[in-house]
Amino acid sequence: MSLKSSLRAVAPASPFNPAHLAPDNARDPHHAVFGQTSSPTLDSLPTVDIRLDQAAQTLWTFMRPGGRPSFSPPLLRDLHTVQQNIHHLAQQTDGVLPFRHIVVGSRVPGIFNLGGDLSLFAEKIMQGDRDGLRRYAYHCVDVVFANADGYGHCLTTVALVQGDALGGGFEAALSCDVIIAEKHAKFGLPEILFNLFPGMGAYTLLSRRLNPRMAEKIILSGQTYTATELHEMGIVDAVAETGEGESAVCEHLARIDRRYNAHDAIQRIKRLVNPISHQELRDITDIWVEAALKLTEADLRKMMRLVNAQNRRIGAPRPESVAS
């Protein structure tokens, strides 16, 4: 039985209400279905591909957002739908899942994810929309927490980074237990360049992997790092040659499975000794929202310059600039 069939057999419709993260249908007509009142199913997720390798007990999920490859509301909604269905399946089967590993990757060539939806940020900030900004941020950390918590069932989560992971994209990778990156991939937290900080888990996650001092140094530097540099720091677990990322993930998970009993016990100990709290992540995003609303027009112009640079990478139209 496929994963989709398994989930349809036991899982109720996702309780997630997509109305408050309504997509911009004018930009991508494929998202129009989500304007309906019914919740999306795993067969109708335009921004996420999933496949189940039953032999390897691995669920592969690949992001394929339309437009700029960031955590747009449609992508967040689809990721949340997948995660909610996994939770429902676990509840209905007493935690006995058809997989023990979840891999998160990207179908966008050369890009894992460029982070938060900066155009949305700028719009909400200019409108003074505190609630809208907080709602978006909460949905980001909900996705991050599910990865970091192993879905409450000690699943091993793996980030397969085959392209640039910036801002929230880097945070999403950090939320996974294992990061495997291809050699050409770049990582960075550019938020300091427009007078903000990465508020979707970077400090929490880097502090656990390194220490608070190094976490602060990386966040405040705005520096871009190679996969090899982060491997030497202990952030990236393995570096693969370009094009060999999926094979490297399979090899890594096969090694885990050969000693799975010990690995599972260590995962449980790690989450017991060094837990990541959902409330901690949300409290940090509250600070992020307040800081974002204090950005000046000059800061917002810098933010939009970054949006324009991202758009040039994918050949997207230039967005409207912030009024001076």
Automatic annotation (TrEMBL):
Family: Belongs to the enoyl-CoA hydratase/isomerase family.
Protein name: Crotonase/enoyl-CoA hydratase family protein
Matching SUPFAM superfamilies: ClpP/crotonase
InterPro entries on file: ClpP/crotonase-like_dom_sf, Enoyl-CoA_hyd/isom_CS, Enoyl-CoA_hydra/iso
Coiled coil region boundaries: none
PROSITE patterns: ENOYL_COA_HYDRATASE
Gene3D superfamilies listed in its UniProt record: 2-enoyl-CoA Hydratase, Chain A, domain 1, 6.20.390.30
Domain of life according to the entry: Bacteria
Region (Disordered) location: 14-40
One Pfam entry name: ECH_1
GO biological process, one term: fatty acid beta-oxidation
Gene Ontology MF annotations: catalytic activity
Organism: Gluconacetobacter aggeris
CDD domains per the UniProt record, alphabetical: crotonase-like
NCBIfam families given in the database record: PRK08788.1
